[in-house]
């Protein structure tokens, strides 16, 4: 009968197994490789980072004529800041003047960045940057999701792996008919607002007088002690009258001198009548994105009345997905429709 092993013998066997699986020299080599890879990754992150926000670009990467990199959001912000301050935009690294014409896109850097590893913000798993967005949006079990009965009033939100458990306990699928009708009426009201805008536009197409034109607005400065940026078009003629379209910028920022600080900037447009009229004109005006423009603009429909003593309409806020990009452009371009129904 075999004798039982002593505690010292058991410890010796365990040590022998560990050393046989990963010899000391192999462990040191693996640690050295991991350390070298980590150092290379850190160096690449530093070399390829944006010179403004000091982070790796997540989409398009621009560079100045000297090769300094900027993510496209910071590039547009620099151009917008320079336009608001009435000074040329410059690279934050070498101070060379930058513009849309002088800066180029760096595709090689974009491809290199897309292969660098990054951590998922929720689960911590490592993925290439090219696939991290799809993982965080559709695959990650820790991503925050909402209940599919959200439209019925459910306010639950939590990790995706807890969604099935929530479904089993959610009370909203079992609401009474009256409660469901209230939820459906709320959804119907939101949908009705969108349909109403579409119906208004289609109804206006039957107006007696319809005119439209492409309007280009140029940047100007006010004559104040602290000058302000505004945009104005040349005179254009529609419906037998002369008009000017102006645009004003509202900039709300914590540190106007720091281009890396985000700003809640908005653009508002104002239509001005430049000719004399003998009687009041009731117009419906529609502002749209100009042809070949890449910046999305939400259609803006408004009513305005012009008379001999009323040559300006109220300022109308124009919603767009990237105001800084518009401000960084040389001109603002919109398509303008006028609808006039004679009484």
TrEMBL record:
Coiled-coil ranges per UniProt: none
Signal peptide: none
Residue span(s) of domain RING-type: 50-95
Keywords: Metal-binding, Zinc, Zinc-finger
Listed InterPro entries: ZFTRAF1 (IPR039338), Znf_RING (IPR001841), Znf_RING/FYVE/PHD (IPR013083), Znf_TRAF (IPR001293)
Zn finger spans (TRAF-type): 116-154
Record Pfam families: zf-TRAF (PF02176)
Domain TRAF-type span(s) in chain numbering: 116-154
GO CC aspect terms: nucleus
GO molecular function: zinc ion binding
Family: Belongs to the ZFTRAF1 family.
Protein name: Zinc finger protein (TRAF/RING)-4
Gene designation: Cyhr1
């Amino acid at each position: 009968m075999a004798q039982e092993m002593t505690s010292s013998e058991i410890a010796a066997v365990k040590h022998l197994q560990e050393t046989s699986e990963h010899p000391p020299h192999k462990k040191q080599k693996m640690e050295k490789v991991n350390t070298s890879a980590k150092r290379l990754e850190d160096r690449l992150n530093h070399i390829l980072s944006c010179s403004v926000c000091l982070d790796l670009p997540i989409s398009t990467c621009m560079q100045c004529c000297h090769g300094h990199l900027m993510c496209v959001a910071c590039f547009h912000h620099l151009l917008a800041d320079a336009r608001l301050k009435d000074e040329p935009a410059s690279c934050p690294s070498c101070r060379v003047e930058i513009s849309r014409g002088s800066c180029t896109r760096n595709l090689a850097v974009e491809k290199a960045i897309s292969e660098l590893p990054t951590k998922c913000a929720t689960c911590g798993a490592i993925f290439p940057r090219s696939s991290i967005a799809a993982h965080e949006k559709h695959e990650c079990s820790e991503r925050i999701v909402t209940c599919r009965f959200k439209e019925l009033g459910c306010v639950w939100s939590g990790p995706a792996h807890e969604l099935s458990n929530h479904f089993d306990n959610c009370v909203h699928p079992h609401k009474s008919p009256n409660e469901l009708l209230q939820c459906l009426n709320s959804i119907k009201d939101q949908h009705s607002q969108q349909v109403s805008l579409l119906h208004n536009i289609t109804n206006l197409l039957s107006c007696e007088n319809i005119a439209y034109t492409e309007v280009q607005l140029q940047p100007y400065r006010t004559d104040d002690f602290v000058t302000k940026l505004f945009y104005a078009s040349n005179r254009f003629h529609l419906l037998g009258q002369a008009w000017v379209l102006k645009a004003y910028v509202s900039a709300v920022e914590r540190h106007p001198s720091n281009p890396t600080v985000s700003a809640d900037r908005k653009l508002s447009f104002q239509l001005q009548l430049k000719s004399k009229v003998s009687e009041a004109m009731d117009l419906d005006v529609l502002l749209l994105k100009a042809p070949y423009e890449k910046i999305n603009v939400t259609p803006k429909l408004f009513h305005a009345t012009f008379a001999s003593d009323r040559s300006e309409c109220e300022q109308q806020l124009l919603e767009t997905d990237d105001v800084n990009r518009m401000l960084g452009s040389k001109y603002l371009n919109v398509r303008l429709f006028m609808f006039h129904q004679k009484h």
